[in-house]
TrEMBL record:
This is alpha-L-fucosidase. It holds the Pfam family Alpha_L_fucos. It is an enzyme of class 3 (hydrolase). Signal peptide: none annotated. Residues 11-306 form the Glycoside hydrolase family 29 N-terminal domain. Keywords: Glycosidase, Hydrolase, Signal. The keyword Hydrolase applies. Belongs to the glycosyl hydrolase 29 family. Its EC number is 3.2.1.51. The keyword Transferase does not apply. InterPro entries: FUC_metazoa-typ (IPR016286), GH (IPR017853), Glyco_hydro_29 (IPR000933), Glyco_hydro_29_N (IPR057739). Alpha-L-fucosidase is responsible for hydrolyzing the alpha-1,6-linked fucose joined to the reducing-end N-acetylglucosamine of the carbohydrate moieties of glycoproteins.
Length: 411
């Protein structure tokens, strides 16, 4: 396996990111594809810019909430497929936030807040565009329009952590002039990650040598395509939306369970991928209450276990527990991720966590000196026989259930 470039290694160290979908569609509260799927008249739809106030969009507050969640980077939609820019497009178009009711460069506010609070700003850019007629009438001219819109972001907003493109799957056989597009980024932002969402049919496919990370939209793969030997090493990233839409949809109450969210975060790191947890802002730019609560419980878990998420990598260590438990390493210590533990009760309230829970791992060739839970520092008893390590995985203390528990192994 090739050695990752520094920007890719640094990106993998981030581990957890927050994805934010926000645009004119948010005012209709029925998902980010509502214009297309509901067949809304284009002229009528685009008048939503006249009511796009962004009055509740507080970039600093959002960035601080993301940081409390444990996110190290945020991907914000600078332009979705509707074609509306959340920044000053500098004459490219008047279909942007400075020409809307808001009259603000919202991407500048976002990037500045990220820089202030030491969060990496990533910018989503839709390549598939419903607004600009050039997309269908003169594709080469449209691609120059797209390149210029990215050049504005690359030149005028300080350091950008990465660019997250989405839509090439709509014209999968077209020449997207990617060398020109990515070359513009490399000219002004040489350390920025370049990510292009490969869509549902080509998940994990590397479409250009400049791609730094492959995406896996919806669902979690069992492995990541890091590239062939002799080629550049690429990272992987899984996206997880909390319900069934990426943009705000007030009537979608089909939210994933906290267990599924936490276990998916863990699974992503097990296979060596970053994970983006998605929320959609309301039409006025506020985080919905339910999304805030999900971010808070992710933050509770991360507060206990963040050292096992950042800067760790997969191992070849195998678990004997239903192939669920796994181990990550930060080159010094080992972190054992333990699933399905119960809560310790007593004779009146028996919750099942007081039983013996031996969990075994094979492939550990160093002698462990100390093993303890990250959440309460409790030391665990263990035995080691050749390359097998068996720990007594005690149940959660009454009043606690963190879904996945992590033990730190020190050598």
């Amino acid at each position: 396996m090739n050695v990752p470039l520094k920007r890719i290694r640094d990106y993998e160290d981030l581990g957890l990111g927050l994805f934010i979908h926000w645009g004119l569609y948010s005012q209709l509260s029925q998902g980010e594809w509502t214009e297309f799927i509901h067949g809304i008249n284009k002229e009528k739809y685009e008048k939503l810019a006249n009511t796009f106030s962004a009055k509740d969009f507080d970039a600093e507050e959002i960035v601080q909430q993301a940081k409390s969640m444990g996110a190290k980077y945020i991907v914000l939609t600078s332009k979705h497929h509707e074609g509306f820019f959340l920044y000053d497009s500098q004459g490219l178009s008047d279909f942007d936030s400075v020409h809307s009711l808001a009259k603000r460069d919202l991407i500048k506010e976002f990037v500045d807040a990220c820089h202030k609070y030491d969060i990496k700003p990533f910018l989503y850019m839709a390549t598939y565009d419903w607004h600009n007629p050039l997309y269908e009438k003169d594709f080469n001219k449209y691609l120059e329009y797209l390149r210029k819109s990215v050049e504005i972001l690359s030149k005028n907003y300080g350091s950008i952590g990465g660019f997250w493109f989405d839509g090439n799957w709509n014209k999968k056989d077209a020449d997207w002039h990617l060398d020109d597009l990515y070359g513009t980024i490399r000219k002004y932002q040489p350390d920025a990650m370049i990510i292009n969402n490969t869509g549902l049919k080509n998940r994990g496919k590397i479409i250009n040598p400049e791609i730094d990370a492959v995406t896996y939209e919806r669902g979690t793969p069992d492995s990541i395509n890091h590239g062939e030997d002799g080629q550049k090493y690429v990272a992987g990233e899984i996206s997880l939306t909390l319900n069934q839409h990426w943009g705000y949809a007030k009537s979608d109450i089909n939210f994933k369970s906290p267990r599924e969210v936490i276990e998916t975060i863990c699974h992503a790191r097990d296979i060596g991928a970053n994970i983006l947890v998605n929320i959609g802002l309301t039409g006025t730019g506020k985080i919905p209450t339910i999304s805030e609560e999900y971010m808070k419980f992710i933050g509770v878990w991360m507060d206990h276990n963040k050292q096992a998420i950042y800067k760790t990598r997969p191992t070849d260590i195998e678990s004997g527990y239903q192939m669920k438990d796994f181990a990550l390493s930060d080159e010094k210590d080992l972190y054992l991720f333990i699933f399905d533990l119960k809560i310790v009760g007593n004779s009146n309230v028996v919750l099942g966590g007081e039983g013996v829970n031996p969990r075994s791992f094979t492939g550990i060739n160093k002698q462990a000196k100390k093993i303890s839970w990250l959440d309460n520092k409790e030391k665990l008893s263990f035995t080691q026989n050749n390359d097998m390590l068996t720990i007594d995985a005690t149940g959660f203390k009454y009043g606690t259930d963190l879904i996945v528990r992590v033990a730190k192994v020190e050598f």
